Each structure stands twice: as structure tokens, then as C-alpha cells.
């Protein structure tokens, strides 16, 4: 295999009525993700939902077992520190938001508002912890973890 060739990390396909996502991960990569608070919020539910279709060497069973044994407590202090860092950095976007409002720059207002909303959501996800089952439910799952209920 040429050194410049890199296999796709993720593929999507339809089988019947099902949309299937196929991702390539290594045991070491998942172990690393389980030590990163924000990545763990995503990786734990994804492996809890995963169905093993083929496991020639037992590595998928090992991954599933790692996820089943996962606990948040060892990551709590780092998660709170990361959340604090996000809040500190978001002060810049508050100033950008105010500056863009003052200048009447609507695209700048939209950008800064989106960044602040994203940062605040990430802070809440890390501080409560909100395990995310799918990106389409990200905001709802964070709101539920925090104790907010969105009424539509």
C-alpha cells in the first residue's frame, strides 16, 4: 500500500431502510478517546449502541468491554478544568459580539453568537456530564443533563 494512501475513516451507506455508518477505529485510539472528557461523551454511547457484525480477533469485544467498564469520575476534574478554560476563552467572543453589534456587522454577530452558544453547550455537557447518543440530539441531551426541558 503506498504511503500516501490513507483509508477513509468513515463510510456511510444505506441497507434497506437503514442508514449505516462504518467507522475505522483502533483499540489504542478508543482507549485514548476514553481519557479525553469531551470525546468520551461521544464515544461511550456510540460503542454502547454498536452492534458487532464481525470480530475475527476479539478486539471489538474488548472495545465494548472497555466502554461497559467506563466511569466518568476519573475524568471529572479534567472535564471541569476544560469547561473553565472554554469559559475563559469565550470572553474573547463576548468582546467580538459587542464589537460587531457596535459596527453593525451582522455576519460577525452571527459568528460570535454561534461560537458562544457552542462554547456554552460544551461547558454544560462537560460539567454535568451529558453523554451524546447522536449529533442530531446533542442540544436536547445536554439540556436534559442540565435539567432544562425544551417545550416545542
Proportion of residues in extended strands: 5-15%
Q: What is the overall number of helices?
A: 6
Helical percent range?
55-70%
- Structural class based on helices, strands and sheet pairing: mainly alpha
Low-confidence segments, given as residue ranges, are none
Radius of gyration: 19 Å
Instruction: Find the count of extended strands (DSSP E, 2+ residues).
Output: 2
H and E string: EEHHHHHH
- The geometry reads as globular
Q: Tell me the count of domains.
A: 2
Give the mean pLDDT.
88
Biggest β-sheet description = 2 strands, antiparallel
Structure description:
The structure is a single chain. A hairpin with a 2-residue loop joins β1 and β2 (18-23). The chain has helices spanning 27-33, 37-49, 59-68, 76-103, 106-127, 138-146, and strands at 10-15, 18-23. The protein has a two-stranded antiparallel ribbon with strand order 1-2. By secondary structure, it is mainly alpha-helical. It starts with 9 loop residues before the first strand and ends in a 6-residue tail after the last helix. The chain is built from six helices and two strands. It is globular and about 60 Å long. The protein folds into two domains: 10-68, no CATH class; 73-146, no CATH class. 59% of the residues lie in helices and 8% in strands.
In short:
This protein is mostly helical. It has helices at residues 27-33, 37-49, 59-68, 76-103, 106-127, 138-146; strands at 10-15, 18-23.
Keywords:
single chain, 152 residues, mainly alpha, two-stranded antiparallel sheet, 6 helices, 59% helix, 8% strand, globular
